[in-house]
Amino acid sequence: MLLAVDCGNTNIVMSVFDDEAICCQWRLETKGPHSGKAYLDVLTQQLTKISCSPQDIDGCVIASVVPDITPHLSSFATNILGVVPVIVGAPGVTLALEIDIDNPAEVGADRLVNAVAVAHLGLVPAIVVDFGTATTFDIVRTAQTDKHKACYAGGVISPGVHRSSEALAMAAAQLPQISVDQFDGQLPVLGTSTVSAMRSGVLWGYVGLVEGILARLEAEAGYGFTKIATGGLASVFVPHLPMITSMQPDLTVIGLKLIYDMNNPKV
Fold it and tell me: pTM here?
């Protein structure tokens, strides 16, 4: 069984593969305890539900955008699970992906993992819209040097929905906190109360942001893209974004499994 770990700024998503299928998945707060015992306790609880145990884990792959936590995750895999983890971005780890930006070292591991998944799914050229701590837009196209290879060609980083909503409430004394994941599907644009006006600003403001950036990226490129949504809040916004081609909530996890297999080919 393979443990795939996607460590983001807000949550750590852990998924266990049994062969090609995800058999269990859970989230931990990134700011939570990072002892090996804490990780082991949660892993044991989750695997018990499917009649398995940590001893069944024989592989691990990690993508992390939080450098302070990466060593804790690596140590957990090595010292407690007894497996050598494949860490995205580490020397010698192949992605079979060309990176065509000014400084490849700056790209978040999760964005590269998504690009690997999109290429494998045959969706290139594509724009991946990830509704996470930040709302990101990443372009994956065919590599110019090898038509059989995909290329990560850059992207756009916008403030995330949760953080924008929290910042608004903190900066304005009379504005309350609102939940950004519970919107009426028929929410009118015109708000008739403070809360409804804030909800409208968050929902329709981000819909407009996504529509505008996607349109500008296509205009700048001069051709169209497959547009894929992923991330924790994708399901909130995708129903209002007809230009989105598909929603892939497990895109990063799929990419992690692919990267593990590339670096641990079966005999």
Answer: 0.91
